[in-house]
Amino acid sequence: MAAKWMNNGIVRWIDYRLPMFSFLDHELNEYPTPKNLSYWWNFGSLAGIMLVIMVATGIVLAMHYTPHVDHAFDSVEHIMRDVNYGWLLRYLHVNGASAFFMVIYIHLFRGLYYGSYKAPRELLWMIGVVILLTMMATAFMGYVLPWGQMSFWAATVITNLFSAIPLIGDHIVTWLWGGFSVANPTLARFFSLHYLLPFVLIGVVMLHLLALHQHGSGNPLGIDTKGPQDTIPFHPYYTVKDLFGTGVFLILYLGVVFFAPNFFGEAINYVEANPLQTPPHIVPEWYFLPYYAILRSITFDIWFISGKLIGVILMFGSILILFLLPWLDTSKVRSARFRPIYKQLFWVFLVDAIVLGWVGANPPEGKFIIIGQIATAYYFLHFIVVMPIVGLIETPKPLPASISEPVLR
Amino acid sequence: MLIAGAAQAQDTASTAQVSERHWSFEGLFGTFDRGALQRGFQVYNDVCATCHSMRQMYYRNLMEVGFTEDQVKNLAAAKEVDDGPNDEGKMFTRPGRPADRFKSPFPNAKAAAFANNGAVPPDLSLIVKAREGGPNHVFGTLMGYKQPAPPPEESACRVTQEQKQANGQMKTVVTAPTIGDGQYYNAAMPGCVIAMPPPLQENSVTYADGTPATLEQQAVDVSTFLAWAAEPELETRHRTGVKVLLFLFILTGMLFAVKKKVWRAVHH
User: Fold this and answer.
1) Is B56 a domain residue?
2) Substitution target from B55, B189, B248 for chain A, most A beta carbons within 10 A
3) What is the value of pTM for the model shown?
4) Residue A403 CB contacts under 8 Å (≥ 6 apart), including other chains
5) Which terminal Cβ of chain A has fewer Cβ within 10 Å, N or C?
6) Domains of chain A as residue ranges with CATH
7) Domain co-membership, B157 together with B185
8) Which domain holds residue B156?
9) Count of CB contacts below 8 A, A vs B?
């Protein structure tokens, strides 16, 4: 049942030469989607919308920003004060980063709960992890650009981590910096890469959608669709549901932008960078806090390997381990709805991630050290030990025969 | 500080008192009191500008505060600003214009530090956003001086500890951070110590509109002015936000209705 626009001669002329209309018709209009998707399935489209908003606001901001240490901070204030609606562009962009990560983390946890990473969607999941890594690199470099105190010192702390690499570490850091400390060459190249990576991200997102459309969306029951009785066309059902979800999301996002635009930020980043004055507490933005906690949890050396290096390895490892998830989880059942033991451990893991975030926000002293170490240990235990074992020993609940079965009588 | 045996320390050394005030620009519909803004500018101009720059402000911005164009021109012209090179290649000074940035008291950071015991008085354009507590912190700092400094038992940063005495008994000892040369007690500062001498006194400024210049009045006015300077877009932002959210609530409500109608077909 082709779309009505195919009756139009011009549309048919174009489509014969460049099949964009039949492509859109199939991928959006007809594309069979499970009929039982819950609102947890809205977050993919929300992420796409955030990417568009970030690129649009970013491109206009870049027209007014100066990537030089003597002018960067002032150029951002120029945007805030003199550029028409510059304050809006800036607040949309900085809070857009928080919104983007919030959406992506919910999207990721949806995947963890419903087994979205399981066969045949392993590559879809792994491309998603690549998206997460690219987002993190982009956000890290973007935070440096305003050249506030936190911009400078976060850049100093994180780039210095690479010196932990044996033998070549210091050379790598000098190469990254373009000099002997975070300075103008660093800012300039971070600006260049911050502009580049979102477009790499767009390409990876297209791969993500390509992989998705190969086998279609998962669903809350975790069982495959068996035929047209289990699916509905994406349009109008999920287009209208996504639009509604977007409305709800925009209320929250724009509520923050207009009424609490500095809620997620650090006050000290409104002080211009001073290489000679270290702030009392150096913390990243909230979306990096769990990894920061993991990094700082290793306060001891093991044999000849420095605690610093182990911390760096674990910090990167905490995301790289996600690549292995399809194989670490041994369960034949996808959805946690039918996995009574894993279901509880999912919530334990979520609490663990939040605890790690809370630890990362606080100075590495006193009770925070031991709590951070326990939370880090559980994080890795969850993936390396708990998931393989639970999949093997768990007795899953009986799965429904099909998606439409609970409805058809 | 001696801590012997099982010491129980109440760590208040980093506690800063932040007084919570009601500000005219608070909330969804708050506005900057124009009178406070003009008085606050006068406090900045007459007192604070001796040491503190406000480089992100231009004299033309003062038109938003209620000054007329002529008043702004006069305020700017009262300052001599650097300019140049002229056609002879020489740098020169001239009276300020509305298009100029606020004139800084020092030509560069080094001169500022030299004149201030090695510490650079921070630029005040963003101070309200650059400190936890915002305008409450700025107000609290201006009001937080106590001269002479209070004894340890009354310091806002006192640390109460149980110390084991020579005779084996526990005694409660209260200590407070020492205030060095060139420093002053201030309850709003982390550590209760500040390098800035109390900048304001009763009537340190004579207000052009005749308002009595009590210490609290000056502190409120200059805090309001600085809050505006840090966020001049605040009123527009809130106004626009109300319209945007109202629009979104209605739109989202309608989208919900449409979603329900479309999905009735699936849910039978």
Assistant:
1) no
2) B248
3) 0.94
4) A34, A35, A36, A219, A221, A223, A225, A226, A230
5) C
6) 37-219+231-280 (1.20.810.10), 283-400 (1.10.287)
7) yes
8) 1-32+118-232
9) 82
Residue-wise pLDDT tens digits, A109-131: 999 999 999 999 999 999 999 99
Q: Which residues of B touch A250 (CB under 8 A)?
A: 248, 252
| Chain B residues close to A273, C-beta within 8 Å | none
**Alpha-carbon gap, residue B96 to B76, rounded angstroms:** 5
Strand pairing report for B159-164 and B170-175: antiparallel
Indicate whether A397 pLDDT > 60: yes
How many residues make up chain A in this entry? 409
Question: Which residues in A lie closer than 8 A to residue B262 (C-beta atoms)?
Answer: 236-237, 240
What pLDDT, on a 0 to 100 scale, did the predictor assign at position B165? 85
- Write out the catalytic residue numbers of A: 213, 217, 241-242, 285
Q: Which member of A80, A247, A259 has the closest CB to residue B238?
A: A259
Contact A258, B29 (CB under 8 A): no
Query: B237 and A81 in contact by Cβ < 8 A?
Result: no
Helix, coil or strand: residue A191: helix
Rounded to two decimals, the ipTM of the complex is 0.93
Structure tokens at B148: 């002479």
Do residue B233 and residue A35 have CB atoms under 8 angstroms apart?
no
pLDDT digits (tens, 9 = 90+) for A25-62: 988 888 899 999 999 999 999 999 999 999 999 999 99
- Would you tell me the crossing angle of helices A289-297 and A367-381 to the nearest 10 degrees? 100
In this model, does residue A311 exceed pLDDT 50? yes
A271/chain B closest Cα distance in angstroms: 6
Q: Tell whether B243 is covered by a domain.
A: yes
**Which amino acid, residue A75?**
S
CB-CB: which of B125, B251, B259 is closest to A241? B259
